[in-house]
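Reproducibility note. Readers wishing to regenerate the assembly model reported in the main text can use the exact inputs given here. Chain order matters: entities are listed in the order in which they were concatenated for prediction.
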Amino acid sequence: MATESIKYLTPETETKLKSKAFPRPHQNTSGIVNWLTTIDHKKIGVMYGLAALFFLILGGVEALLIRSQLWNHNMEVLSNREYNQMFTMHGTTMVFLVIMPLSAAFFNFIMPLQIGARDVAFPRMNTLSLWCFIAGGITLNLSWFFTGGSPAIGWFGYAPLTDTRFAEVIGDMGPDFWIFSLQILGLASLLASFNFITTIINMRAPGMTMMRLPVFTWMTLIVSFLIILAFPAITIALVELMFDRTYGTNFYDFLEGGKPHLWQHLFWIFGHPEVYILILPAMGIVSEIIPVFSRKPLFGYGLIVFSGAIIGFMGFAVWSHHMFTTGMGIVATSAFSILTMLIAIPTGIKIFNWIGTMWGGRIRFETPMLFALGFITMFMVGGFTGIMHSSVPIDAQHQDSYFVVAHFHYVLIGGALFGLFAGFYFWLPKLTGKMLNEKLGKFVFTLMFIGFNVTFFPMHYLGMIGQPRRTHSYNEGHGFETWNQIATIGAFILGVGILIGVYQFVTAFFNKKLKDAGKNPWDARTLEWTLSSPVKEYNFARTPIIKSRDQAWENNYGPKENHSDKVPLDDHGVHMPDRSWYPLVSGLGFLGLVLGLLFHQSVDANTGEILRDYTYAIAGGSIAIFGIIMWSLEGPAGYHLFPKETEE
Amino acid sequence: MKTLLNKIQTLSYIILPAFFSFIGGCSRIDHKQSALDPKGLVSQNQYDIFMLSVWITIFLFCAVGGCLMYVLWKYRAKTPEEAMEVPPQSHGNSKVEISLIIASTLILIILAVPTLQGVVLMNRVPDPNDSETLEKLGLDRSAIDDAITVNVTGKRFFWIFEYPQFGIVTSNELVFPASKAVRINLRTEDVIHSFWLPKLAGKMDLMPGQENFLWFIANEEKIRTRKDSDGNMTLVSTEIAMPSVFNGKMRERIFAKQKFTDEFEAVGGLFYGQCAEYCGNSHAYMSFRALAQTDDDFDSWVKRFQNSQNPNLQPGTYNPEEEYQKDSIVQFADPALGDSGTREFRAVQAIAKGQAPNLDKKVWKKAHSDDYEMGKKLFSSLQCVQCHAINRTGLGSKGPNLTLFGIRTSLAAGWMRNDEENLSKWLRNSNEVKFGNLMWNGEGVDDDHPLRNLENDDEKVNQLVTYLLGLK
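Running the prediction on these inputs yields the following structure tokens for the assembly.
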């Protein structure tokens, strides 16, 4: 990072509190300490991405085990409990440990660059949210090694199956691990969301008005609001469930007057916005890519942004369409049915506008564009089956059948994952400074596109001829075999495609053979493409003054008055905050708190009484609070850089 | 480019016919549990709305997808130079956008109207006094007036069917009259289940602490319709489409006509159902059957069940002070069956007072084989009776009611065909067939339980099988 032209001054910062235990690493720190203590949004983004890709492989292996079990009738690859654990872990992993953190990776890396900021508003909180995410991933997967193994309750954890009364293994701890990992993952998401909202509202470069924000940043903002509004519902639901399981309260225990319906409402009032939390970032990415590869601005920018907001808003008004078959009565089902149909309109608008963007353009079919086009077509299929499910009588047949499995995989793989892969192919040159291998990229796309459709299209048919979801086995004589075998073959093709893709992304950081990317390899349009690749640690040598929406494009092709200016560098230079150990300490503290709560119960061998020991939980919680207090006191500290204007 | 197109063309000559013949081979969609083969009013309505949505979405997919393909083809950059051109930078067109919004709203209305009508139909049995609606639906008033009610209780992992109008209880096989509406009240005693009967009714969850409702009425004509080998539709007689259950004809006919593994059901009146909400380890195994009957056959079935489950009609101990009519059945000690063994005897003719059952005199006959009687004894001594009710309603019992088990077509909540071989497999080690089932894993069942020690006891298993399948 340090080049000769950068003049370092002695840091003129006063650290309010110097701790000997966790001294702040020096500005030139490298190696593992650099990564563990970093507060740079770009490094955090990379770590989010790598961890999520790891979990993608893990969740993918679980998926392939599921598909192997369904290869034929009465297979015994997995026992029924193992199978149930697999689909629970697959769902939870893919939602909370893959798609959400992959989106967070892009939010972290790209969003500050798009608004002309040097970092997010709260860099250390950002780091803490990364460590909380890692802690959540660890907690969830630790469940494999304790009583009962992983949870076998489905990613939706419907009460009263989660009640200890109905546990199928005595002292089953799986649901407890599930509860606590979701809680800590929720903490990670909330921290990140408050951070992003503050950043986008407050830290835009001069001239970057809200209606000049790139669509991806808009989607970051909307998703962050969705997270802070949706996660409290699941947090409360999980706390109540934890109380039911640990202290014998009766929120969901119907035998004591509790209400299983309550869980479903709380879960889906989180769970449906969650669907949009998963898909809107991908829509944002696609809205960035299509204009670039069509060489035209986004068609109906305002309408796309507005539709995103409407989708997010209405996402809170349709949750009960997951519960059409739970006996809510005519009025409620009708109302939710109509509302769900309405949400198709803003979604359709986005698709119309993407096509409108390409209309009259000069379309190039490079890998990011292929993935974006894959997104549009696959998401369209998923959206159409979604419209079918909005109709209650249709849903009465489709609910909990393989038709639904097909539907949401079209949305979440064909939609979200394809969008995120498009993002990888699009922005990795900005991260690494190297172009990815185009041929390999197209090969990955072909494998994934074919594999995906071969896996999931037959599932529509399987659902219609009566295969129910979440069944570890099916009987002979239902005609399920052929299409399940086709689906399993497709799943392995898809798996190979994803694996090669992940390999390509990870090796992009080391592969010396790749061509240099330069500042703007795609001739792209938004602000991040005015920066060098890889981006310098300070992002912008001078804060840009924004004059138009597609600033990078306008700088190249627009009239003079649309070119961006730069705020002159003052004597102060670029202030870079110091690295800190405290986010990691707090993260470990939260992990300790969660594990302490998980293992606080023991049974007295003599009397059979339940003993509760909160020492470890309290210790973990204290460490977490200690870390937060210490980072509040240690101040920003840091150092100043004086880069030349050209060095950005 | 040319060669590539040629290649695609030649490829398509090979692939497309292969593809269509493959699809053709799978063109039958009336699988046992298929929602694409509705046989009742409610499911037909669900199917019609589904097909409407399919056509709407196919239209939309072609329109939007076609538009997309056109744009991709028309505006593709053909040369690297063209790829660097700067096209006009247009930002949008509000007229186009507004008209697209209006168009999509209109399309949704096309789907919304039948949806709302369908919601009402699913949730409410039509009012028998509303002749207009009945006519529109093509229903007779009597179909609603004489509707039967079934209280369904879901348990991990089987179903209890109680007929409150008739005071009878059965399990896993729902027998119903084809011409009458069937009201289903859904309850559960443990976790959430879902009652899914694709060909008749769609599904509804069984929520703990709440009673849910669903109804269906079968369409006799559709049950009787069958495609012959030339693809023509023919109506078969009711005896063939809906063999009677009460005298075991249904079971015989199914067993004779087809293998359990056949993909398509040859008997029109037999329907397959499944629990559709994840309910634990063996959720996959929680299926059931529904059997349509003519009114007369249904009445006979009800009568048989009522007689079997009526405590006053159970064979009593022989009373020397009583005269017995022909075919009366009494219980009387039989030392051949062990110390306290009793056996059922049937009167061959009218019998005067004081003629104790004695086989020598030929007026009494053994009602059942020795194996049956031994099996019956084992059913008590092996503690089966603690969970299973036979010849009584036994509503509180933990396991499925096994009254008239011998006329049932399936075993283990629809997972296997109910024949000797499967029943003995099930009795020997049910956990191997259906891992996690309550019979093997329920409260109070451990390795010392006699049930868990039947594996190699051929004699006992045979006796139990004879007894259970003899219940008809």
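We highlight two features of this model. The longest strand of chain A covers residues 574-576. Chain A has 18 helices and six strands.
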